UniProtKB/TrEMBL annotation, chains B, C:
InterPro entries: MetI-like, MetI-like_sf. GO terms for cellular component: plasma membrane. It is a multi-pass membrane protein. It comes from Anaerocolumna xylanovorans DSM 12503. This is NitT/TauT family transport system permease protein. Keywords: Cell membrane, Membrane, Transmembrane, Transmembrane helix, Transport. It comes from the Bacteria.
Automatic annotation (TrEMBL), chains D, E:
Pfam families: ABC_tran. Residues 4-238 form the ABC transporter domain. PANTHER family: ABC TRANSPORTER ATP-BINDING PROTEIN, TAURINE IMPORT ATP-BINDING PROTEIN-RELATED. InterPro entries: AAA+_ATPase, ABC_transporter-like_ATP-bd, ABC_transporter_ATP-bind, P-loop_NTPase. Keywords: ATP-binding, Nucleotide-binding, Transport. It comes from Anaerocolumna xylanovorans DSM 12503. The keyword Heme does not apply. This is NitT/TauT family transport system ATP-binding protein. SMART domains: AAA. GO terms for molecular function: ATP binding; ATP hydrolysis activity.
Amino acid sequence: KADNKSTNTNASTNAPKPSKEAASENVTNAPETTAAPSAKTVLRIGMMSSYDVIPYVMINELGLADKYNLDLQLEVFTSAKDRDAAFLAGELDGVLTDYIGVCIYQNADFDVKITGITDGDYVLVAGKSSGITSMNDIKGKSIAISQNTLIDYTLDQILAKNSMESDSVVKEIVPRIPDRVELLRNNKIDLGLLPEPFASIVLNDGAVYLGSANDIGLYPAVSAFTKKVLDEKSEAVRDLYLAYNEAVAYINKTDISSYEDIVIKTVGYPEEMKGQITIEPFRESKLPPREDVESAIAWASKKELCSSDLTYEQMVYDVYSK
Amino acid sequence: MIFVQGFLSINLIWLIAFLLTDTPVIPNPLRVYQSFAIVLKDHMLIHILYSLRRIGAGLAISLIIGVPAGILLAYSRRANRILYPLIYFSYPIPKTALLPIAMLLLGMRDGSKVVIMVLVIVFQVIVSVRDSIQAIDKTMYQFIKSTGAGNLAIIRHVTLPAILPQLLTSLRVSLGAAVSILFFVEGYGTTYGMGYYILDAWSRINYIEMYIGIITIAVIGFLLFVSIDYLAYRICKWSYTGSSL
Amino acid sequence: MIFVQGFLSINLIWLIAFLLTDTPVIPNPLRVYQSFAIVLKDHMLIHILYSLRRIGAGLAISLIIGVPAGILLAYSRRANRILYPLIYFSYPIPKTALLPIAMLLLGMRDGSKVVIMVLVIVFQVIVSVRDSIQAIDKTMYQFIKSTGAGNLAIIRHVTLPAILPQLLTSLRVSLGAAVSILFFVEGYGTTYGMGYYILDAWSRINYIEMYIGIITIAVIGFLLFVSIDYLAYRICKWSYTGSSL
Amino acid sequence: MLIINDLSIHYKSKQGDNPVICHLSFQLQEGESLAILGPSGCGKSTLINALAGSLAAESGTMEFAARDQGYPLSPKQHKIGLIPQNCGLLPWKTVRENCLLPLKIRKEYHKNKHTQELNRLSKALNIQDILNKYPNELSGGQLQRSAIARAFLLEPDLLLMDEPFSALDEITRAEARELFLRVWKYQKPTTILVTHSIEEALYLGNILSVMDAQGGNIKYQKNNPYFGQLYPDHADYLTAKQILRQQLVTKEEGMDTFE
Amino acid sequence: MLIINDLSIHYKSKQGDNPVICHLSFQLQEGESLAILGPSGCGKSTLINALAGSLAAESGTMEFAARDQGYPLSPKQHKIGLIPQNCGLLPWKTVRENCLLPLKIRKEYHKNKHTQELNRLSKALNIQDILNKYPNELSGGQLQRSAIARAFLLEPDLLLMDEPFSALDEITRAEARELFLRVWKYQKPTTILVTHSIEEALYLGNILSVMDAQGGNIKYQKNNPYFGQLYPDHADYLTAKQILRQQLVTKEEGMDTFE
Ligand SMILES: Nc1ncnc2c1ncn2[C@@H]1O[C@H](COP(=O)(O)OP(=O)(O)OP(=O)(O)O)[C@@H](O)[C@H]1O
Ligand SMILES: Nc1ncnc2c1ncn2[C@@H]1O[C@H](COP(=O)(O)OP(=O)(O)OP(=O)(O)O)[C@@H](O)[C@H]1O
Ligand SMILES: [Mg+2]
Ligand SMILES: [Mg+2]
């Protein structure tokens, strides 16, 4: 219990504290906690530092975790492989991941269920000096991506939406996103499919916006828990989503200036961007649409990442069902 | 003196690289040093202490396991038969790929970090202890055997002093490896340590902080290296005598 | 024989671990070996060749740079003044953190991969060459100097043979390091190589294939190690003679 | 009493076995001093190393009884003082540490007694000034004198000396020989002395033997009436010297190879 | 002609400077053989190593002229044959390779000529059988004979021998001495021989000198009328031996320290 302090993302002290009263006003459903207040349920969630994380950090920042009697430990990883290793080792209860990730877990006989959606966009950008100005120019150009991930999947979906084959661009594997940014900025590569804050950084730098996952109605990021945790801590997980929704409500309603420092620190925006950051409204957590999940399964099974028999029902779990 | 020289020469190379290229990946060294003060308040000392503790534990455990194992391997024919294939087989296994197993057995805190570090270093120690024992001049043993010395006394009076210089070399090499691996194991399950500091800055494309981290690691490493050299000079006094050639 | 022994003992440990734990992280070794045949068609040989080429290039360049640098450092007081601080300062720098620079300067293909590998290995070679030269018995030089031998002849007839055993040790250790680093550099800009193979399997949480990759690397590494031992036995014939003790 | 029975020693090397000592047997009474002469390369050092326990015998037994300690001969059981041909000082210990090492290993070190004794010995051998130096700072003769001091300090039951005075100038050598005689008379260790000097053998061995050039057997053995006598003007002394010299000449090689 | 002028040699160590040779000056005509005697540790090997170019002098000059080659003395300019006290064979080369190494380094190796010459020398020194062995497989005397062969094979202008026969039995030693005399008479190298045997010095040196125990100076020097004569029954021979022995006795230490 003592070391959770080091792993919880705490706002720096000079950031203006968001008012807890403001958050409490939005509470519509009081939690039906049965456990004694002293015995908080521990939920350990693994994530990579990104835009999706903001509501989770706000849950702790706004004191919502205490309210729901949760000990929410957010573990930040620098690589998805490390996160998966920790998850499989039982060091985590849940993760922020995506459709493809859950397909892979399922394929490894590791029963992980999608329990909610998270929000984050993936922007297709072209390098400043690549000469590309629209989707029509990208045929045969090179793009730095990671393989067998949601980036790979999202790229294929965007290409398909623009009536192109998956192999109409040259895919280069570059595991770390900062390296992709650097290659793009230095014209070693033509295209990138980047999440925040990297998209903003390169766009500020003069890169060309070509399209995004959200543009084509794709929201592939989700939160997921193991079936075991869902069975053992179902109430805590449900409370987490209640807290999540409250945090989302607070974010959507409050001006960003009162929590911008937390956002900068969580997502990793450069300090210079302070004041220019915009937050798209977050959606409340719910289960992802069936067509999206099934389309992801189809893609993953084609890549031999999972079996084609995988069904929507196997993939998701409704925390409100019990 | 040496420190200043090394420091300046590296920075000169860096400055030239900065002037020749024009990318944020190689920032102006002057700007980096300017930012040093601002960053020091980022609990740099805590980061350093965390990393030193992990390196210290990793090196100590590796030596405690590696030196006796190397000695056993070099002297005992039976141990050699059993351990030699095992070690030659496990040495090339990329230890970082064993992370899932390490996490499974020891969690994602310092346990698995130190174990991965030990797995990487201990084989280097074993191999170099074994090899340096095999290189000991056989006549070194002749006299000590006539005194009726047991195996422990032989190891203490002949083997260890004879391999000490090479052991210190191996320690230097291992130290380098430990620092590298820090960079891998501090990428998960912690928010302290120099490895984390650099990775974090890197993922935020904050090259200034990243270089501050790298320089800090280099300075610490340099100091540790110089301490090992000083140690070598003190312990291996005999090999520095009579060397007028 | 040795090979079979090492192979079996590792697998025994693995089997026990499998039986004791129950997670996909440690799969049944038998199932892994069953899948071997299926996987062999994955162009395993091509993966192996790519990796061997990178390791070969990395080791060769490291030796070509490291051995002369180590010799220079050990013998020339002036070179020592300039290089010593530079080397002690650059050695602890985590080379993998220089990846962005390497990528920008040398692209994402084998250029940057080999450079990173060399940066990791070359310091180990330099430090151990320098240290082993300093450990050479000074009386070794006495006779050769009286023949009027120049520096090159001294290096050829005294220095190199004297440090050869330690150089081979250093080669063994570097080989281990090269395999580890393979795992890092084959993570980008390529779809061939054992490192890629393992990382790819890992990211797909396909532990069966991941272990197949690890075993393949271990077997290759083992074979390389045994070749170095054989080489040592052939080249350092003199040190294996008169060793009846 | 030292009993060597059917001792054979080979060196194994890649070019094959090299049998150096084949079926050697001899006996030596307790407290006697045997001087061994023999052509270079005949196996004298090999025998000494085997007796000292640092070389394994192919076959045969070595038994030793002194002060009621049992056989077989073993460095663990018996107190063996050794002066190897190469002196055998450990380079990482000072001369003083080297001298005290056997005592410390045998757990027989008494600070007062042995410091005093070492001082006496090093004064007699004139090595007081180098006691704190490391072996690689010493001259050949200084190394040898240090090895002598180390062996005598141990007060051994079996004293094995392999050309112990070869690197000493005549004065120092004479002093060291006197020292040996005094030590021997006082402690009566069973002694084997390998030497190339016939005079030295006649002076320091009460039994003389000559080793064969091949097979490492003792081809000549005799009691020595001139033991401890310097330059006796006995006419027989010169005859004895001549006999020993003749024994050393091997058939194959003689003055006639000088062509 | 070898001219040593005001030569000083120190050993630097942590405990401070150790001056071994201070302001030594002497001359040696071309083709002469100087035998140096001196108490153990007085600096004889130090002088030899300095002349061989393997030890840097603190101050002073060493000049050598032979066959019209210029001074100063340098192993690059002059052909120096060295028999170090520890033999100095490289452990990673066989005896044969060790013997040929100086020739190869000087680029003077002629396969036919030197193979034949090495065969002759190794026959005379009885080391034919060990030419293909490595030094760590050899006995002390075999090592020394190999070093002798190596030095003689080079046909040096300056021959430096540091106790070259100390580990040889009397027969082999006599043969080796004869070999030296023949080599010396034939090639006339300027020779410096360090020895502890007064007889050897009288036999092999046409100039005799004795080094001081302190300061490394030459305290006694004399031409030797008995050069090359074995056991001369001249009465003066015994006197000469006696004088040399007396010169070796240093003031501080004598027979009286034997208490
Ligand atoms: N370590 C070894 N390996 C192989 N052969 C060896 C070894 N040591 C000695 N020999 C051989 O064994 C024989 C006897 O050697 P040893 O050293 O006993 O001779 P020695 O009688 O002491 O001669 P010396 O008087 O020259 O010292 C020699 O022919 C030598 O070549
Ligand atoms: N490498 C060294 N470092 C420091 N001191 C040394 C070194 N070598 C020799 N000495 C010292 O220098 C002095 C002279 O040594 P040197 O070897 O020249 O003596 P030597 O006359 O050859 O004696 P010996 O007859 O015993 O061989 C000795 O007192 C010795 O202790
Ligand atoms: Mg011998
Ligand atoms: Mg000497």
